[in-house]
Amino acid sequence: MRVAFAGTPEFAKVALARLHAAKFTIPLVLTQPDRPAGRGMKLQASPVKAFAQDHGIAVAQPRGLRLDGKYPEDASTAREALLAARPDVVVVAAYGLILPQWVLDLPPRGCMNIHGSLLPRWRGAAPIHRAIEMGDARTGITIMQMDAGLDTGDMLLVEAIDIRPDDTTATLHDRLATLGGRLVVEALELAVCGGLHRTPQPAEGVTYAHKIEKAEGLIDWTQPATIIERRIRAFDPFPGANTTLGGEAVKVWRAVVAEGRGKPGEVIESADDALTVACGEDALRLIELQRPGGKRVLARQLMQAHPDLKGTRLGTAA
Length: 318
Hints:
318 residues, alpha/beta, 8 helices
């Protein structure tokens, strides 16, 4: 089977590596154009492009795929590359561009998507973040036959995993990426022998995982501690939950729910290697923090520089 691949970040690279290891013929990879990154803001290849180049796989990086869109020349060049590649199927994972109908129709077996949720829950851009943020007990991978809708296609394979109480988006992402790579290989192997079957998504239980905005990282201490704690884990590594301490921006990377009362944002205890901060309901013990320009450190290291923080209000001006 000839498998073209469309993907960009690490989540997609894991799947591409599994397909390559399984000896599928991969004639072409589509990935996003190089982006500025790092302190020097130098152009940097996506993880998918880097893997493809390391393994001698042809790469196309169109800025758009709509033949009548903003970048018609890019789309036309990508179409020629796909036609020349003659894929039986296109596998898509976190690509970042919407596939127009001509792409969906081009391969005989259509396009398969590796989606990081149990569809139809958390269709959209940020399913891993939103599952943690909303306190879901389980999530998983859905291998889906793509159609023109937003993650609305028929399900081909589904496997669930538990969300651990201490999972962050980073840790859950890695487990789901590994699962997605394994499942897409299974799906393609089943397709070869005629054992892959389509199941329409249920009409009930549809939710949308909207893109994460940087402003969402600001902690609202009037919320219950359980909600804030979930958001801290959901926004690790991006955009990071943040607040202010004495007028200085501080990121909160790890916290646990604790008993306690006080004004929202008030440090009600500064001992035992953690800061305990009152919330709208209960309190949070802040365990791992980061000051501007610094590294993630345990709260006790911050407390050594500021030993008397009790009564301080987080999230307020100095």
